[in-house]
Amino acid sequence: MHGGTFRIIPVESGRGCPYGCEFCTVTGFFGDSIRFRTNESVVNELLLLKARAKEEGGQIAVFFIDDNFAINVKRTKSLLRDIIAANAQVHWVAQISANLLRDEELVDLIAAAGGKWIFIGMESIDPANLADVKKGFNKPGEYSVVLDRLAQRNVYAITSFIFGMDNDTTGVAERTLKEIRSWPPGLPIFGLMTPLPATPLYKRLEAAGRLTPPKHWQEFIPFAMAHTPLKMSIDEAHSEVRIGWASSYSPEAIEKAVDSLNHKPLGYRINIFIARLCFRGIYFPQMGRFAWVKTILENRRTIFKLIRLGFGGGLHATVPPVATQPVSEQQH
Ligand code: SF4
User: Fold this and answer.
1) CATH code at 110?
2) Does any domain span residue 69?
């Protein structure tokens, strides 16, 4: 780590998720038991990372790679309280299912402990699809409440959707995008229903003769279906995913997301702008210098707007430092 660098450090505070969603490898791979590191061990790791970043003049963020960071809400709250008490906050991102974010106190603690981005596997806005894949604990009706609750505390969401589910029909992307546009800005991502070997989904589709070759995971192609959906063709499913990405990461959509934070300090707008540009690269080829130059040129309006705001007095309005005061004293 050196001056001017920014690193995202993976930290695992616990492992396992017993929910058993049909498409997910986690329950099959780790079993349905959950095990945690001690709070002390996690806090000490954060303190070491924080100290090293300070010593070397670099910036860090932590990615808690736990399968479901708040699977035991009581334990997560206790860990977050210990992080706050030890002043071990760094900016972090974690994966948490939407149902667990109903707990207001948990969300307060996430914000106070340095949480900035939460990855939420929303999968679908259709309850029938969610029931099909054993994820009926996700309630699409409460997605916006959960996202507002996070945004009020300056925590934003990476919202993940799956197209090509058994109840999906053409137009699923636009129906989903309509919902997304009514939510606080975040980082939507779109994938296809993927039958990974050893998952209950794979077994169900294999038994039904719906898998299309290649069957082995090493031959799976990103953003290409490996089975036939029930209510649309494979090509239609691919097209829905393309619509999702193209609409969410067009220069206009990025500008709108940045503008929607115009009541926040400049740092938040810069943050979401950079995050959107990076996330765009998950789907659109963006590895070479030329691709980046092209992306930057396409988004020049937003860039100029941010520069103007910076020179207009907002230069010091960066993302506020991680909160260190007790949760009860924070203003939301
Ligand atoms: S909640 Fe997430 S980690 Fe847990 S089984 Fe479902 S998809 Fe997998």
Assistant:
1) 3.20.20.70
2) yes
- How many domains are contained in the chain? 1
Nearest-angstrom CA–CA distance, 293 and 190: 24
Please write the tens of the pLDDT for every residue from 274-327.
999 999 999 998 778 888 899 999 999 999 999 988 887 554 444 444 443 433
Distance, in Å, from the CA atom of 78 to the CA atom of 307, rounded to the nearest integer, reads: 41
Q: Which residues line ligand 1 (CB under 6 A)?
A: 17, 19-21, 24, 26-27, 67-68, 97, 121
Contact 23, 162 (CB under 8 A): yes
Say if strands 59-64 and 91-95 run parallel, antiparallel, or are unpaired.
parallel
Q: Is residue 283 part of a domain?
A: no
- Domain range enclosing 32: 6-248
Indicate the top mutation candidate among 69, 96, 133, 135 to test ligand 1's pocket, ranked by most ligand atoms within 8 A of CB: 135
**What's the number of CA atoms in the CB half-sphere (13 Å) around residue 57?**
3
pTM: 0.90
Counting from 1 in the atom list of ligand 1, the atom nearest the Cα of 26 is 8
The verdict on residue 44 lying in a domain is yes
Whether 296 is covered by a domain: the verdict is no
Distance CA 330, CA 332 (A): 6
| DSSP 8-state class, residue 7 | E
